[in-house]
Structure formats: structure tokens, C-alpha cells
Amino acid sequence: MGVETIRFYQRRGLLSTPKRSEGVRRYGPDDVRRLRFIKQAQAAGFTLEEIGQLLALDAGENRSAARDLAKKRLEQLDARIAELHRAREALRRYPNAQRVRRVLA
User: Fold this and answer.
1) Around Cβ 42, how many Cβ atoms within 10 Å?
2) What is the CATH number of the domain that holds 58?
3) Residue 35: its pLDDT value, please?
4) Looking at CB atoms within 10 Å, which of 52, 77, 79, 103 has the fewest?
5) d(CA 96, CA 87)
6) CA 3 to CA 46: how far, in whole Å?
7) Chain center to CA of 90
8) Which of 63, 38, 37, 34 is nearest to 48 (CA)?
9) How distant, in Å, are the alpha carbons of 44, 79, 92, 94 from that of 86?
10) What is the pTM of this model?
11) Count of structural domains, the chain
């Protein structure tokens, strides 16, 4: 992960800025876990704002609200997957429909 990405997350409040040691920022295991979580949540389709909410809920130990947010996102993903399957099937039928029209013409 690039330095600019990490600094962007810091500016967004998703990651704290570590103390410097000899002019170098030192990130600990908790920071690394947090960065991994952010990337995984992004891969699951969460926005940075939603990721911030998840992190805040987890820090406040309001895990039921975090689960609800994750469940909502899962439902959205399932709906999107169903939509993509319908689009895929429509595209699969398209070449066959063109052949039928040519034969009937």
C-alpha cells in the first residue's frame, strides 16, 4: 500500500498518525490490522464513510450496529449480483436473437 493512500486514510480519520521515530513514521500491528480491514471493507463494496462508521461502531463496542450495517451491505451485494446475472443472460441471448431475425428475414 502506498504512502499517499495511508496519508489519505489519515486525513479521512480512518487511521491515526503515528509518532515519528528519527523522522520516520512507525506503524504498529494495530495499524496494520486496521489497514487490512479498510482494504477488505473496500473490496466488499463499503464506501470510506461506511468504513469509518464500522470502525467507530467497533471501537464503541456497538458490534450489533456494525453487524446490521454489514448485513445491509450484503443484501445490496446480493441484489447487484442478481442484476448482473440478468444482464449476463440477456447478453447471452443477444447473438442468438440476431441469428433468428436473419433467418426469418
Assistant:
1) 13
2) 1.10.1660.10
3) 95
4) 103
5) 15
6) 22
7) 27
8) 38
9) 21, 11, 10, 12
10) 0.71
11) 1
Instruction: Determine contact, residues 34/16, Cβ cutoff 8 Å.
Output: no
User: What does the alpha-carbon distance between residue 70 and residue 21 come to, in Å, rounded to a whole number?
Assistant: 37
Residue whose C-alpha is closest to residue 31's, from 53, 50, 55, 49: 55
Alpha-carbon torsion (69, 71, 75, 80), positive or negative: positive
pLDDT tens figures, 25-75: 888 899 999 999 999 999 988 999 999 999 988 777 778 888 898 899 999
Which amino acid does the sequence have at 49? E
53, 55, 58, 59: CA torsion to nearest 10: -110
Extract the C-alpha cell encoding 103. 433467418
Domain that holds residue 78: 3-104
Region label for 13, one of left (φ > 0), alpha (ψ between -120 and 50) or beta (otherwise): left
Scan for cell 479498510, then name that residue.
Answer: 38
Share of the chain above pLDDT 70, in %: 90
